[in-house]
């Protein structure tokens, strides 16, 4: 995704150390995924357990517990499958482009590129590259489809980085 924002007023850049991971650790993600599916199965399995004749109050309690278990399971499974999204943010005030990984509200700044350092912008259907005078890649990211490409081109035109 390409976005124009002044998010850097609220977020401070952190190190671009590849060993530093944004989001939950792998062990936590696997645990959350397993627990999520266990909660979903428990919510469904609650209806398969034989028991006494269901009165109105018992039925309501069973339904409430089932809904809570299933909702908790979906939430845990979402935590387990959430992956960072790579984005470009254009800061017109500081005349910089930020390449960030984002999960929800948490962002990790991977690279900061000044507008003056950008010599050429290459956009294909699936990639966007910012290049310097020596044709060295300053920043790059994947684009997902023609709509993302059109959005990227519109954002770059709005920042006067590319012309029609």
Provide a descriptive summary of the structure in words.
The protein is α+β, with helices and mostly antiparallel strands. The chain folds into 2 domains: 2-17 and 84-158, PH-domain like; 26-81. The protein is 36% helix and 26% strand. The protein is built from 3 helices and 7 strands, in the order βααββββββα. The protein has helices at 26-45, 56-81, 146-158, and strands at residues 2-4, 85-91, 96-103, 106-114, 120-123, 127-131, 137-142. A 4-stranded mixed beta sheet has the order 1-2-3-4. A 3-stranded antiparallel beta sheet has the order 5-6-7, covered by helices on one side. It is elongated. The two termini are 21 Å apart.
Low-pLDDT runs? 7-19
**Approximate helicity band:** 25-40%
Give the ordered list of helices and strands.
EHHEEEEEEH
Calculate the mean pLDDT score and round it: 78
Our estimate of the beta-strand percent is 25-35%
Summed up, the domain count is 2
Overall shape: elongated
CATH class assignment of the largest domain: Mainly Beta
What is the fold named in CATH at topology level of the largest domain? PH-domain like
The main pleated sheet reads as: 4 strands, mixed
Transmembrane segments: 27-48, 54-77
Keywords: Membrane, Transmembrane, Transmembrane helix
């Amino acid at each position: 995704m390409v976005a124009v924002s002044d998010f850097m007023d609220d977020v401070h850049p952190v190190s671009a150390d590849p060993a530093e991971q944004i989001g939950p650790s792998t062990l936590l993600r696997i645990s959350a995924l397993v627990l999520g599916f266990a909660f979903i199965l428990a919510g469904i399995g609650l209806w398969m357990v034989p028991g006494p004749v269901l009165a109105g109050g018992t039925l309501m309690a069973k339904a409430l517990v089932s809904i809570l278990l299933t909702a908790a399971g979906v939430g845990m499974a979402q935590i387990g499958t959430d992956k960072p999204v790579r984005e470009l943010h254009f800061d017109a005030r500081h005349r910089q482009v930020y390449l960030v990984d984002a999960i929800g509200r948490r962002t990790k700044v991977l690279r900061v590129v000044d507008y003056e350092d950008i010599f050429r912008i290459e956009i294909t259907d699936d990639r966007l590259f910012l290049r310097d005078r020596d044709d060295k890649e300053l920043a790059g990211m994947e684009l997902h489809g023609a709509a993302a490409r059109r959005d990227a081109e519109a954002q770059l035109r709005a920042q006067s980085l590319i012309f029609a």
